[in-house]
Amino acid sequence: MTLNEVTVSRPQDIEAIVNKATAEGYNLLLLYDDRVDEMLHGYLNGLAMSDENFSIIFPGDKIRTEKEYYEAVRDSVPLAGYMSFGFDPLLDILSVEAVSYEPEKPTYWIWEKSHVFFQSDHEWFRRFYHIMTMVARKVRSGHVDAQGKIVAPWSHWSPQRLVLILTGRSDVMAADASQPRSSLYHLPYDAEYYFPDLSTQTVACHLK
Fold first, then answer.
1. pTM over 0.85
2. What angle is formed at CA 174 by the lines to CA 125 and CA 65, rounded to 5 degrees?
3. Looking at the domain that runs over 3-207, which CATH code has it been given?
Protein backbone atom coordinates (compact mmCIF):
# COMPACT_ATOMS: atom_id res chain seq x y z
CA MET A 1 0.00 0.00 0.00
CA THR A 2 1.01 3.63 -0.52
CA LEU A 3 -0.47 7.04 0.16
CA ASN A 4 -3.26 8.05 -2.22
CA GLU A 5 -3.86 11.74 -2.85
CA VAL A 6 -7.57 12.56 -3.07
CA THR A 7 -9.05 15.97 -3.77
CA VAL A 8 -12.12 16.73 -1.65
CA SER A 9 -14.28 19.81 -1.89
CA ARG A 10 -17.39 18.74 0.03
CA PRO A 11 -18.39 16.20 2.72
CA GLN A 12 -19.91 13.93 0.06
CA ASP A 13 -16.41 13.33 -1.30
CA ILE A 14 -15.35 11.94 2.09
CA GLU A 15 -18.58 9.95 2.30
CA ALA A 16 -17.74 8.24 -1.00
CA ILE A 17 -14.36 7.14 0.39
CA VAL A 18 -15.94 5.76 3.56
CA ASN A 19 -18.73 4.00 1.67
CA LYS A 20 -16.20 2.29 -0.60
CA ALA A 21 -14.20 1.06 2.42
CA THR A 22 -17.40 -0.22 4.05
CA ALA A 23 -18.51 -2.09 0.93
CA GLU A 24 -15.10 -3.60 0.12
CA GLY A 25 -14.00 -4.28 3.71
CA TYR A 26 -10.87 -2.35 4.61
CA ASN A 27 -9.67 0.28 7.09
CA LEU A 28 -8.93 3.93 6.37
CA LEU A 29 -6.16 6.30 7.36
CA LEU A 30 -7.36 9.77 6.38
CA LEU A 31 -4.61 12.38 6.48
CA TYR A 32 -5.58 16.00 6.33
CA ASP A 33 -4.26 19.56 6.14
CA ASP A 34 -5.78 22.67 7.67
CA ARG A 35 -8.16 23.19 4.73
CA VAL A 36 -9.84 19.82 5.22
CA ASP A 37 -9.67 19.59 9.03
CA GLU A 38 -13.08 21.06 9.86
CA MET A 39 -14.86 19.32 6.98
CA LEU A 40 -13.45 15.91 7.94
CA HIS A 41 -14.25 16.37 11.62
CA GLY A 42 -17.81 17.47 10.82
CA TYR A 43 -18.45 14.56 8.47
CA LEU A 44 -17.17 11.92 10.91
CA ASN A 45 -19.17 13.34 13.80
CA GLY A 46 -22.25 13.31 11.60
CA LEU A 47 -21.53 9.71 10.68
CA ALA A 48 -21.25 8.79 14.35
CA MET A 49 -24.64 10.35 15.10
CA SER A 50 -26.45 8.41 12.37
CA ASP A 51 -28.91 5.68 13.36
CA GLU A 52 -27.82 3.67 10.34
CA ASN A 53 -24.59 2.47 11.94
CA PHE A 54 -22.86 1.80 15.26
CA SER A 55 -19.95 4.18 15.77
CA ILE A 56 -17.37 4.78 18.47
CA ILE A 57 -15.20 7.90 18.50
CA PHE A 58 -11.82 7.67 20.22
CA PRO A 59 -10.66 11.23 21.08
CA GLY A 60 -7.10 11.18 19.80
CA ASP A 61 -6.24 14.59 21.22
CA LYS A 62 -6.44 12.94 24.67
CA ILE A 63 -4.27 9.92 23.81
CA ARG A 64 -0.53 10.38 24.25
CA THR A 65 0.40 7.42 26.43
CA GLU A 66 -0.44 3.76 26.96
CA LYS A 67 -2.51 4.66 30.04
CA GLU A 68 -4.47 7.34 28.20
CA TYR A 69 -5.26 4.92 25.38
CA TYR A 70 -6.84 2.41 27.79
CA GLU A 71 -8.73 5.22 29.50
CA ALA A 72 -10.06 6.44 26.14
CA VAL A 73 -11.32 2.94 25.30
CA ARG A 74 -13.04 2.61 28.68
CA ASP A 75 -14.66 6.03 28.27
CA SER A 76 -15.65 5.62 24.62
CA VAL A 77 -16.90 2.04 24.34
CA PRO A 78 -20.32 1.33 25.88
CA LEU A 79 -20.19 -0.98 28.91
CA ALA A 80 -16.36 -0.94 28.92
CA GLY A 81 -15.98 0.85 32.24
CA TYR A 82 -14.98 -2.40 33.95
CA MET A 83 -12.04 -3.03 31.58
CA SER A 84 -8.65 -3.45 33.22
CA PHE A 85 -5.41 -2.55 31.50
CA GLY A 86 -3.87 -5.25 29.30
CA PHE A 87 -4.08 -6.70 25.81
CA ASP A 88 -6.47 -9.54 26.70
CA PRO A 89 -9.16 -7.29 28.25
CA LEU A 90 -8.76 -4.92 25.30
CA LEU A 91 -9.29 -7.75 22.82
CA ASP A 92 -12.44 -8.83 24.66
CA ILE A 93 -13.87 -5.30 24.68
CA LEU A 94 -13.13 -4.63 21.01
CA SER A 95 -14.52 -8.02 19.94
CA VAL A 96 -17.80 -7.77 21.88
CA GLU A 97 -18.85 -4.39 23.31
CA ALA A 98 -17.32 -2.38 20.47
CA VAL A 99 -19.19 -4.20 17.68
CA SER A 100 -22.76 -3.60 16.49
CA TYR A 101 -25.34 -5.96 17.96
CA GLU A 102 -27.34 -5.49 14.75
CA PRO A 103 -25.38 -7.26 11.99
CA GLU A 104 -27.12 -5.30 9.26
CA LYS A 105 -25.60 -2.09 10.62
CA PRO A 106 -21.90 -1.41 9.97
CA THR A 107 -19.55 -0.56 12.82
CA TYR A 108 -17.14 2.37 12.63
CA TRP A 109 -14.22 2.88 14.99
CA ILE A 110 -13.22 6.51 14.49
CA TRP A 111 -9.84 7.40 15.99
CA GLU A 112 -9.57 11.13 15.41
CA LYS A 113 -6.21 12.95 15.56
CA SER A 114 -4.27 9.70 15.80
CA HIS A 115 -1.15 11.68 14.92
CA VAL A 116 -0.96 12.84 18.54
CA PHE A 117 -0.20 9.33 19.86
CA PHE A 118 1.77 8.46 16.71
CA GLN A 119 4.11 11.35 17.45
CA SER A 120 4.16 11.05 21.23
CA ASP A 121 4.88 7.31 21.57
CA HIS A 122 5.17 5.59 18.22
CA GLU A 123 5.86 2.13 19.65
CA TRP A 124 2.69 2.02 21.77
CA PHE A 125 0.71 3.60 18.95
CA ARG A 126 1.89 0.78 16.68
CA ARG A 127 0.92 -1.93 19.19
CA PHE A 128 -2.60 -0.65 19.77
CA TYR A 129 -3.12 0.13 16.10
CA HIS A 130 -2.19 -3.44 15.19
CA ILE A 131 -4.55 -4.86 17.81
CA MET A 132 -7.41 -2.78 16.41
CA THR A 133 -6.67 -3.75 12.81
CA MET A 134 -6.44 -7.44 13.72
CA VAL A 135 -9.77 -7.41 15.55
CA ALA A 136 -11.33 -5.52 12.64
CA ARG A 137 -10.10 -8.22 10.24
CA LYS A 138 -11.46 -10.98 12.46
CA VAL A 139 -14.86 -9.30 12.68
CA ARG A 140 -15.00 -8.82 8.90
CA SER A 141 -13.63 -12.13 7.68
CA GLY A 142 -12.37 -14.34 10.52
CA HIS A 143 -8.91 -15.89 10.66
CA VAL A 144 -7.32 -17.11 7.47
CA ASP A 145 -4.86 -19.98 7.90
CA ALA A 146 -1.86 -20.82 5.73
CA GLN A 147 -4.06 -22.86 3.39
CA GLY A 148 -6.45 -19.96 2.91
CA LYS A 149 -9.20 -21.58 4.96
CA ILE A 150 -11.44 -19.23 6.96
CA VAL A 151 -11.48 -20.02 10.66
CA ALA A 152 -14.08 -18.52 13.01
CA PRO A 153 -12.22 -16.39 15.61
CA TRP A 154 -14.77 -17.09 18.36
CA SER A 155 -17.98 -19.03 18.91
CA HIS A 156 -21.16 -17.69 17.26
CA TRP A 157 -19.05 -15.51 14.95
CA SER A 158 -20.50 -14.27 11.69
CA PRO A 159 -18.97 -11.72 9.29
CA GLN A 160 -19.87 -8.09 9.96
CA ARG A 161 -18.93 -4.82 8.34
CA LEU A 162 -16.42 -2.96 10.48
CA VAL A 163 -14.21 -0.09 9.38
CA LEU A 164 -11.43 1.39 11.50
CA ILE A 165 -11.03 5.04 10.49
CA LEU A 166 -7.98 6.95 11.69
CA THR A 167 -7.47 10.62 11.00
CA GLY A 168 -4.16 12.39 11.37
CA ARG A 169 -2.26 15.43 10.25
CA SER A 170 -0.44 14.86 7.00
CA ASP A 171 2.65 16.78 8.13
CA VAL A 172 3.12 14.22 10.94
CA MET A 173 2.12 10.93 9.31
CA ALA A 174 2.46 11.31 5.52
CA ALA A 175 6.14 10.36 5.35
CA ASP A 176 5.47 7.04 7.11
CA ALA A 177 2.25 6.44 5.18
CA SER A 178 4.18 6.87 1.91
CA GLN A 179 6.40 3.86 2.66
CA PRO A 180 4.99 0.56 1.30
CA ARG A 181 6.62 -1.40 4.16
CA SER A 182 5.25 0.89 6.85
CA SER A 183 3.76 -0.69 9.98
CA LEU A 184 0.59 1.16 8.99
CA TYR A 185 0.15 -1.52 6.33
CA HIS A 186 1.93 -4.55 7.79
CA LEU A 187 1.32 -6.55 10.95
CA PRO A 188 4.22 -7.92 13.04
CA TYR A 189 5.51 -11.36 12.07
CA ASP A 190 4.01 -13.03 15.14
CA ALA A 191 0.58 -12.35 13.59
CA GLU A 192 1.39 -14.60 10.63
CA TYR A 193 -0.34 -17.56 12.29
CA TYR A 194 -3.69 -15.77 11.95
CA PHE A 195 -3.04 -13.64 8.88
CA PRO A 196 -0.39 -15.14 6.58
CA ASP A 197 -0.41 -12.07 4.35
CA LEU A 198 0.36 -9.80 7.37
CA SER A 199 -1.80 -7.04 5.93
CA THR A 200 -3.54 -4.51 8.17
CA GLN A 201 -6.03 -4.05 5.31
CA THR A 202 -5.56 -0.28 5.54
CA VAL A 203 -5.81 2.25 2.74
CA ALA A 204 -4.25 5.66 3.36
CA CYS A 205 -5.55 8.80 1.70
CA HIS A 206 -4.18 12.33 1.83
CA LEU A 207 -7.26 14.51 1.57
CA LYS A 208 -6.39 17.70 -0.28
1. yes
2. 20
3. 3.30.370.10
